[in-house]
Structures are given as C-alpha cells and as structure tokens.
Specification:
With 409 residues, the protein is an all-alpha fold. It has 16 helices and no strands. It has helices spanning 23-40, 47-54, 58-61, 63-82, 88-108, 112-140, 146-175, 177-198, 220-240, 243-249, 255-282, 284-300, 302-305, 309-337, 342-371, 373-394. The longest helix is centred in the middle third of the chain and has 30 residues, at 146-175. The N and C termini lie close together (6 Å). 59% of the residues are buried. Residues 1-19 and 399-409 have low confidence and may be disordered.
Length: 409
C-alpha cells in the first residue's frame, strides 16, 4: 500500500482539540496500516497452497493480489469524493470493517470467485485508507508534530512488510492458509475496536470534487513521475507476487526457509529506506536510477544465479534494499514536481500505484502460466531497468532538495 496522500485537501483542516494525549489515536491508525499491508500481501506467501486447494493455477491465484489492487485504484478516488463532509472517524471505522469482512470471506470460502469477491472488499479498504489515513494522523497532533505522526503511520507499514507477510506465510505453513486469514480477521477486529475506542470525532470542513483530481497531471514533470511509477510498480509486483513459487520450484527451498527469506527481504527493505534517504538527499534522479538498476538486475538474475539457497538469499536481500528505496524515490520526485497540486492529486497517485500493483500481478501471472515462474522475475527486472533508462534519458533534478522523507512500502 503507501505517504502518497498525506496532504489531501479534505484532511487539511485544523487538528481537533484534545484533553488527553493524541498519540494513542495515531497509534490506532498505525496499526490499521500494519493490518492492511499484511492483509493485502498475505496471499504472496500462500499462493501454492491456495492454488492447490481451490483447483486453480498459481498464475490465476495471483488474482488475489490483482483484484484488490484494481478495486483500490477506483476506491481511492470514489471514497475521497464520495465521503463528502462525513466524519472521518466513521469513514475509517467502515474501511477497517471491510478488512475484517474480507478476511472472513476468504477464510471460509471454498469457491475461488467468492475468494476474489472477498479480496475485492479489501480493495475498498486499501484505497480509502491510503487516500485518508496518513492525512488524518496529522490532524490529531499539535502543529509541529506532523512528521512524527506520519513516521508512526509508515512504521506500521514497514512492520507489516517486515514481519506481517512472512508471519502469515509461516502460520499458513504450520496450520493451513485458512488459519492465516482467520488470524487476519482477528487482527482486523482488534484494530476496529481500538479505533472505535481511541479515535476522536474528525469532522470535515470541505470536500474534494472530481474536477480537482487531475490538477497534478497538468505538470509535465509530474506526468513523467506517474509514468516512472507505473513502470517500477508493475515490475516490482510482476516479480514479487510470485516470489514464493519461484523460491519453491526453482531454488528448491522448503516453506519454512521461504518464510524466513521473506522476513529477510522485509528487513532489507528497512535498510533500503536508510540508503535511499541518503541518496535522495543528494539527487532524486540518482535515487530513481539506482532503484531501477538494483531492482532490475537482482530480479532478472534470479533465474540464473538464484537456483540455490546462497544465490537466492543474496539476490533477495539486494532486491529488498531496492524495494525499500522504490516508494521513497517516486514519491519524492512527484512531490517536488508539483507540490502545489499534491493536495488534490494524492488520490490520483494512490490510484496510479494501485493500478500498477494490480497490473504487475496480472502480467506476472500471465507470464507464469505460459512461460514458467522464472519468466515473472525476468519481466519484473526488465520493467525496472526500463524505468531506470527512462529516468536517465528524460528526468532532470529540480532545485528542491529532498529533505523530509517518509518511507512507505
């Protein structure tokens, strides 16, 4: 999922007053971010088991990532515009509720179309949350504390990437994939109860209209950023969605080793946050190129050098570093390209990222079903390298330094 939208116009109102510390409320949003990231990518570590039990190919099972991404792309815009001036507290409760219902439907379903319906409900929660959640956290805290609030939200994202996804994979291996989704439902229920207890009233003073949304796309540098985002996100998720089948079938690793390797991948992403921040502070263009080259080479070389434990581990670590750099790089570029338009364009960015995520899972799935699981790694690598080439050819650094960066996976 996303600080793509931390300055949305609808959430730019003054923070409400508090008689108590606002930080528990911020934490309730942060654990919502953790739960959403974990749930959105939970199928990644469980695809072989899900495909086998429901009688579909692993490429078709990848639709469990594609469908919520596509729905989230639409929901980011429709929720942003459709909620009007509704109290944002109730909106967040509803979005968290879709995550709870989604997990329960998937856990109890024996029909793959019904599973996809459950995952589509999740897409509503994902798109709506990333269009609203980060900005809401800044309303909860006193002026000057916004960066800390945002860092807490995206710490939840990082923890979900580092621990949630591999933990779900391990839980699925030990007790079955349905138990992993039941556990996701329990987490969603706890998040909902926590938010109902801790979130104060968050009334809106204004609303976004459809007419405001394309404002960012009128800026050429922002349009280039959107194109770069599409390339690298499609490449990332064409490969990442099928990392578990690859490690199982090509690298011949057992399920527990794969779960550990997914954990290592997430930890490498945290290191990528730090490395990417240092590069971006000097040159955003260099950060984008580095991200594309490192991601492209590490994924494309997996079928050649990642056929055993050592090679696969090294390349997955390098790939994880690039993954940690990826969202920081593209978000910083777009923010610098059109800072005046980000208030109305945040939902557009979320939509772009989610369409690319869904498209990547779909493209990878087609490649897996027709050319084998290794082809998804090659496709992902080629697209990431294409992003680096486009950046090298057409991107030029602006005068604004990259100072405040908030990472999101």
């Amino acid at each position: 999922m996303q600080n793509q939208t931390n300055t949305l116009a609808t959430e730019a109102e003054l923070s409400p007053s508090h008689h108590h510390s606002p930080w528990p409320a911020v934490i309730s949003i942060a654990i919502g971010a953790f739960a959403l990231v974990t749930t959105e990518f939970l199928p990644v570590g469980l695809l072989p088991a899900i495909a086998a039990e429901l009688g579909v190919t692993e490429g078709v099972a990848g639709m469990m990532v594609t469908v919520p991404g596509l729905v989230a792309a639409l929901a980011a815009i429709l929720v942003t515009v459709g909620i009007g001036k509704a109290d944002r507290r109730f909106v967040l409760w509803s979005l968290t509720g879709t995550m709870l219902v989604s997990n329960l439907i998937v856990a109890l379903s024996h029909s793959f179309p019904l599973v996809l319906f459950g995952r589509a409900l999740l897409g509503i929660g994902v798109g709506g949350f990333w269009a609203l959640g980060p900005a809401l956290s800044t309303r909860l805290v006193p002026p000057g504390s916004e960066p800390r609030a945002l860092s807490m939200i995206f710490a939840g994202v990082s923890i979900g990437t580092v621990a949630g996804v591999p933990a779900g994979a391990l839980l699925g291996e030990l007790f079955g994939w349905r138990i992993a989704f039941h556990a996701g439902g329990v987490v969603a229920l706890l998040v909902l109860l926590t938010q109902m207890r801790l979130l104060p009233s968050l009334p809106a003073k204004s609303s976004v209209t459809f007419r405001q949304l394309p404002e960012m796309l009128r800026v050429p540098k922002a349009r280039l950023g959107i194109f770069i985002t599409m390339l690298v996100f499609i490449g990332q998720f064409a490969a990442y969605t099928y990392i578990t089948p690859f490690l199982s079938q090509v690298a011949h690793l057992d399920a527990r080793t794969i779960s550990i390797l997914l954990l290592v991948y997430g930890a490498a992403g945290l290191a990528g946050n730090v490395i990417g921040g240092k590069i971006l502070a000097r040159s955003v263009r260099a950060g984008l190129i580095t991200t594309g080259v490192v991601m492209g080479l590490s994924t494309a070389l997996l079928p050649l050098l990642g056929t055993g434990l050592i090679g696969a581990t090294l390349l997955v670590i390098v790939w994880g570093i690039a993954f940690g750099m990826m969202p920081m790089s593209v978000q910083t570029w777009i923010f610098q390209a059109a800072p005046h338009a980000m208030e109305s364009g945040g939902a557009v960015f979320v939509t772009t990222a989610q369409i690319a995520l869904a498209s990547g899972a779909l493209v990878g799935g087609v490649a897996v079903d027709h050319l084998g699981v290794s082809s998804a790694m090659v496709v992902g690598g080629v697209l990431a390298l294409a992003m680096a080439a486009v950046t090298l050819r057409w991107a030029q650094d602006g005068e604004q330094p990259a100072t405040k960066l908030h990472a999101v996976h």
